[in-house]
Amino acid sequence: AIDNVIIKHDCQALLIVKSISELNRLLIPVYDINQLSKRFATVIFELTSTGKLPATLLFLESSEDSENSEDKEKKDISFMKREALSRLKRAGVADDQIRTNAVKVDSISEAVKEESESEDLVILVEANAKERKSFINKIRKEISDKTDCPLLIVLAKSEEEEKEREENTTEEVEEKKDQ
Question: Are 95 and 89 in contact (CB under 8 A)?
Fold first, then answer.
């Protein structure tokens, strides 16, 4: 299944395809501060600048999330909005390409189904690589079969990638010291 391929090959993103010329906007559900990664900003920058598509950040406050949240700030919509806009601005996304909307929902997957239109590209950003299998299964079972729009799934960095990045950074710093 697709979730096994993603895990086996350590994919960073997965696109379920439709021609970009048929799209009207990017729809990005945001429900956790950990989604607001450099990958999140890079993907949105590339698509807004290349495809000239506006990005709508859909900030979701979900009852299913609040039960599981260990840190309320990670789920605070106004905090997430400030962080998202700041991250996108640093990535070079033009202000006129970003729209925001905030909604309270019972279920994140239901909100995606209700808010998305067939001309959207829904960008689902993983918040935590440790929960990848659950994230992929939820998308497959609750979202992809129930929406008419294409999905772009952006995966979080795995612990291995983080360790490798830290090791490379440490090596680069040591090399600069030696020079």
Answer: yes
